[in-house]
Amino acid sequence: MSQTSIDPRSLRAPPKRPIRLSWSDERVRGIFWQVVVVGIVVSIVWWLWSNTVHNLEVRRIATGFGFLGREAGLPIAESIIDYNPTNSYLRALVVGLLNTLKVAVVGIILATVFGTLIGIARLSKNWVLRTLSATYVEVIRDLPLLLQLLFWYAILQGLPGPRQAIHPAEGVFLSNRGLKLPWIEWEGAHSLALLTFVLGLIATFMYRRQAVAKQIADGVPRRTWPMALVSLVALPLAAWAALGAPFTPDIPALRGFNFQGGLTLSPEYFALLAGLVMYTAGFIAEIVRAGIQAVPNGQREAAQALGLRPGAVLRLVVLPQALRVIVPPMTSQYLNITKNSSLAVAIGYQDIVSIANTTLNQTGQAIEGIAIIMLVYLTISLSISGFMNWYNARIALVER
Amino acid sequence: MLAFGRMIRHALGAVALLGAATLPGQAQAQQAPANTLDAIRARGALICGVNTGLAGFAQPDSQGVWRGFDIDYCRSIAAAIFGDASKVRYVPTTAQSRFTALQSGEVDVLYRNTTWTLSRDTSLGLDFPAVNFYDGQGFMVKRTAGVTSASQLNGATICVQPGTTTEQNLTDWARANRIQFTPVVIERLEEVVAAYVAGRCDAYTTDASGLAATRSAQPTPADHVILPEVISKEPLGPAVRQGDARFADIVRWSHYAMLVAEELNITAANADQVLASDQRPEALRLLGKTGDLGKMLGLDNAWALHVIKAVGNYGEVFARHLAPIGLQRARSPNAMYTQGGLQYAPPFR
Predict the structure, then answer these.
(1) For position A90, what pLDDT does the model report?
(2) Checking DSSP bridges between strand B157-160 and strand B203-207, what pairing results, if any?
(3) A residues 263-302 near B, CB within 8 Å?
(4) Which of A348, B118, B168, B345 is spaced 20 to 30 Å from B276 by Cα?
(5) DSSP H or E segment with residue A279
(6) What's the whole-number mean pLDDT along residues B120-137?
(7) Considering only alpha carbons, which residue of chain B is nearest residue A67?
(8) Which residues of chain A are under the pLDDT cut of 50?
(9) The pLDDT of residue B5 is above 50
(10) What are phi and psi of A24, to 5 degrees?
(11) CB within 8 Å: B155 and A347
């Protein structure tokens, strides 16, 4: 297949030859072998498929995805959307998917922030800070994640019961049932305010880009914070006030066995999140350190010599170059967080794996259940790497 | 580069040949044996799927020897087939892996406190030849909670293992009784019990037999109370692959042999003596002195004698393993039908 690699530097087009139907023609041989390889792959897939279907039929095991519409009857402790056991398996699986995303998204954000701080701390001139973060990285990276999850879960179970809950402030309770926080009765006005905030965030970004473009054109710096204040604070508040400014606090209180009301952070979710964030932050710290150290000192010194302030040096000179080193390995860490979240099964957090496992056990349709799990992780992982590849291409060094 | 290309071509050629050789026939490599009895005889041992560790039912002792109610049943099948109860290999299975292990032929029979339900009987490709223990789901709470009835559990957090009928019974019961609860769903038995003991949950729910086993394994069993309500029917018994009626018959009638032995007062200790001196016709047919009942099953005529000498009758097995963990037999469904229970064997003739 060497004929397909054309030296881009050559100005001359490759000579065109008519294809001879002969074994001595390199292109004919190339096409022949490609057809053979594709044929083999297709046959193997077909063979695996037909063999499986045949064996399932022989053993009278039900197949197909008809079970998704049946009543699930399985209890789920925490759910972002409304769920009760009379709902279908499909809805139960969606709840599991959202639970996986809940831990993956929050985990990725926290691990990035935490890992970056530790990575920078490792380069600090302060001996205590430097040694502490180096120790953290070495210890955390060397312990299996499952062990760390069980450790966090055991610690959280060691908290006092609900009746002896730690009660540091009004409406805040910490017990072996989790962390209870005061919350508000969520209404339409709150959703509208949240939506306004998100739109405001996009508007602020676009405004800033324009301001920078204009500054490049005429050299006059423009202030962006008044626009940010209006679109991020004033408008959402106005939207909330326009719908009557509803505010009903929902304060947890001990009634019967458990706390009722308020916002719950369950020990299962917290243990999983803490374990994933602490573990991955150890790796991210090293990636960030490597990225910063990859920028030659001369770059920083040259920027300072041009009269840039320290913040601008970091933002405009060091970071863009460091990110080129950081982003590709960071993608792997984000994928790791997502996939490692499947260890949730061990500590009773009901993610997609936990719920799909129960589903396949109740219905007996293992192949379909595993296929659903694979599809979910493949979709999430491809989305993450697609986004990171786009971002990587955006910040990549533009060369001739 | 050229050498590499040639190497690839050789490799591809080899793969193509392999593919041509294997493709025409439907692969039978991973197929479970159609005739389980012949497969067991050829192998020289029964492979029995059991629990990973449940006191009274299946648990390795301090010497690593498996002991329990389910284990004795595995041994009874080996005794019926080989006349030697030790020819068993035990495969520990989790609640989630058990059916796959049986379907794929990794184990011959599943003795793993498994509930017989319609959907398992039909859509999993399994058969349930017998019920050797009538169970029901219950709740266990800590004595300090002051709970005396399951109806007081509204608002409670309840620990439960996933992927079992237990989980569905719990939601059915809560819906029927308008009880709100928060589940904590943990897969491994040790972890779910640890969560209950640590106070993560107010109650732990599973089959009453499992509760009794867990309670008896606690440092102070009296600290835990099993609530009186039984919220489900859990007929536990062996499972075999569907479509092998002969092996299912052996599993079914081995259980009945142990029941009939109890009815006729034949024990592991007196079986030889009964064989030598007893005149009751059914006892002689059971022990193979007269008739050809064993041959009809495809076994030796002394099969039931081997079963009884190896593990004893049903009452002996129950008393040896289940009475010590606090399970009552009298006035329970597991009593003989002559004493108001449900254990009843068809006639041996």
Answers:
(1) 93
(2) parallel
(3) 267-268
(4) B345
(5) helix A267-293
(6) 92
(7) B123
(8) 1-2
(9) no
(10) -80, -10
(11) no
Q: A256 and B154 in contact by Cβ < 8 A?
A: yes
- A185: closest CA of chain B, how far (Å): 20
**Residue B51 scores a pLDDT above 70:** yes
Provide the 10 A C-beta neighbour count for residue A26: 12
Q: Do B200 and A358 touch (CB under 8 A)?
A: no
Please state, in angstroms and rounded to a whole number, the distance separating the CA atoms of residues B52 and B210.
13
Give me the pLDDT at residue B87, please.
Answer: 96
Query: Which residues from A are below 8 Å from B188, CB to CB?
Result: 346
Q: Is A115 left (phi over 0), alpha (psi -120 to 50) or beta?
A: alpha
- pLDDT mean over B77-106: 91
Q: Report d(CA A61, CA B32) in Å as an integer.
A: 13
CA distances from B80 to B129, B130, B151 (A): 16, 16, 46
Does A369 contact B at CB distance below 8 Å? Answer: no
B298: left (phi over 0), alpha (psi -120 to 50) or beta: left
Of the partner residues B162, B171, B186, the one whose CB lies closest to the CB of residue A85: B171
- What residues in A contact B172, CB-CB < 8 Å? 73
Superfamily the domain B36-134+235-339 falls into: Periplasmic binding protein-like II (3.40.190.10)
CA gap B57, B47 in Å, rounded: 17
Q: Is the ipTM of this complex over 0.90?
A: no
Return left, alpha or beta for B41; rule: phi > 0 is left, psi -120 to 50 is alpha, else beta.
alpha
- Which residue do the tokens 């004893």 mark? B312
Q: Which CATH number does A89-185+248-395 carry?
A: 1.10.3720.10
Distances (CA, A) of A264 to A89, A165, B146: 25, 14, 26
Residues of chain B with CATH 3.40.190.10: 36-134+235-339, 137-232
pLDDT in tens, B259-278: 999 999 999 999 999 999 98
Q: Residue written as tokens 């072996």?
A: A176
- Residue B7 has what pLDDT? 45
Domain range B137-232, its CATH number among 3.40.190.10, 3.40.50.450, 3.40.50.1100, 3.40.250.10: 3.40.190.10
Contacts of B183 in chain A (CB under 8 A): 75-77
- To test the contact with chain B by mutation, choose from A27, A59, A350, A365 the residue with the greatest count of B C-beta atoms within 10 A, namely A59
| pLDDT at position B83 | 95
Residue B257 has pLDDT above 70, yes or no: yes
At residue A31, the 3 state secondary structure works out as: helix
Of the two residues B229 and A255, the one the predictor is more confident about is B229
pLDDT of residue A72: 85
Nearest 10 degrees: Cα torsion B82, B86, B91, B92: 140
Residue B4: predicted pLDDT: 45
Between CA B149 and CA B153 the distance in angstroms is 8
Reading the block at residue A321, the tokens are 């170059």
Instruction: Flag whether residue A58 sits within 8 Å of chain B, measured between CB atoms.
Output: yes
**How far is the C-alpha of A351 from the C-alpha of A344, rounded, in Å?**
7
- CA separation for the pair A298, A293 (Å, rounded): 12
